Amino acid sequence: MKGGKLIVFSAPSGSGKTTIVRHLLAQKHLNLEFSISATSRAPRGDEKDGTDYYFISLEQFKKHMKAGDFLEWEEVYRDNFYGTLKTEVERIWAMGKNVIFDIDVVGGLRIKRKFPEETLAVFVRPPSVEELKIRLKKRKTESEEKINMRIAKASVEMATAPQFDFIIENDILENALEEAEHLVAQHIANEISAEEE
Length: 197
Prior knowledge:
single chain, alpha/beta, Rossmann fold, five-stranded parallel sheet, four-stranded mixed sheet, 7 helices, globular
């Protein structure tokens, strides 16, 4: 597999990484395309197959795992698998674009390990775990039990932050967006200058 740059955004649920990724995708000069993850969970709210995720059955997911079709995969919660299909990255690279990921910390670090040169790995840190809980409650998409599960997981995820190339503190969204855009533009520009040398 060879192609453009890989840009990974990872964070605990509710940190605002999806908002940042959407902003970056709207910046045409960055030439980004979103890597759609595959998941074995059911769609939530108005999520669409092939846009938000590739929704596949648990059985199908396990078949892909066995066949080695994933770049990375993770059982995020029991029987809730998420992963990046190799064909998805190949699809984006074939378009001549850079790949942007919005994935969990384990998957993000796996991609960084597999493609150390091509990958920019950014961790989005919320101001605090308390703030995270407020944001998750505001979403009104999950039960109290699910929110508590996410909060417990967030503490573990926050500990992985130093393993990423950069940490963006998402306290004031405008600042976080600006910082993210700068980092990504710089990462892509490094590729261009390396080619020119």
